[in-house]
Amino acid sequence: PDVYPGNCWAFRGSQGYLVIRLSAKIYPTAFTVEHIPNTLSPTGTITSAPREFSVYVNDESQAEGKLLGRYVYAQEGEPLQTFPVMEKNEKAFQLVELRTLSNWGHAAYTCLYRFRVHGKPA
């Protein structure tokens, strides 16, 4: 419900994934990742923030989803960063997968505060 230090979905290590089922099928247009800013971090750094990540969609009939883009969350950027779909898609989807490929250096865990999916209704 909020974006305070520690109120995140944390997973062990620097790689992980999250699958979301949307309430309805959409044509995805963009994705937003949110993390706390450096100024709110007790250590003054956000090494637990996702760094490289990719986003896939799936219609449950595929073994592997369709890649919509690979992105980098800027550690020194705004806490809320929006990324456009890089691979155009003509099909509506309800399942979205966020794959975190690396973080900004935290060895023990990665924190994801918010992940949003933007799109047009099917």
From TrEMBL:
> Keyword Transmembrane: yes or no?
yes
Q: Name one Pfam family in it.
A: Sad1_UNC
Q: Name the domain of life this protein comes from.
A: Eukaryota
Its annotated compartments are: Nucleus inner membrane
Q: Name one GO cellular component term.
A: meiotic nuclear membrane microtubule tethering complex
- What's a Gene Ontology MF term here? protein-membrane adaptor activity
**Keyword tags:** Coiled coil, Membrane, Transmembrane, Transmembrane helix
Predominant localisation class: nucleus
| Bilayer topology | Single-pass type II membrane protein
Q: Which residues form the SUN domain?
A: 1-122
Q: What is the protein's name according to its record?
A: SUN1 protein
Q: Which organism is it from?
A: Pterocles burchelli
